[in-house]
Amino acid sequence: MDVPGGSVTFMFYSKANSNRKGFQCLTEPLPVAVRDLDGSKLLHSQAFHFFGTAECAEQGCVVLTTGTEPVWLPAFYAKDASKVIDPTGGGNGFLGAFVVGYQETGSVVEAAKYGHVGASFMIEQIGCPERTGEGEDERWNGCSVSGRLADYQAMLSSHWD
């Protein structure tokens, strides 16, 4: 993605607990500081946008960016929501939608909102959501993604009023 003076690079870091799974068992955790990147030098720090999101499952997430206050965003579904069937894949859905949201808006906070909406589709069933239609007619689990994003924005407005 092009930005004035450079490009944006995403590095998602997950510090695994003692029950590391999958490929994480075969690797060391990714470095979190630029100085840890095997001798690499950060020559143009202005070209990088540093941020972090701490996902807290049904509690939502907190978005941290350089030079701004943290922003807390609630999850799309409440913990006891009847539509939540299986949380497996919710984090992956969050990350995928986060990247799309960041590409579309350029805002880390807006991207996290996309992330919550993406996660909401992943946890409504066992397995992947059902996708039908194309373009404006595209639906996930029978629901418009843009419609659900609008619902989430409205929920946030009433949450903070």
UniProtKB/TrEMBL annotation:
It holds the Pfam family PfkB. PANTHER family: PFKB FAMILY CARBOHYDRATE KINASE SUPERFAMILY (AFU_ORTHOLOGUE AFUA_4G09500), PROTEIN MAK32. SUPFAM superfamilies: Ribokinase-like. Residues 58-128 form the Carbohydrate kinase PfkB domain. This is Carbohydrate kinase PfkB domain-containing protein.
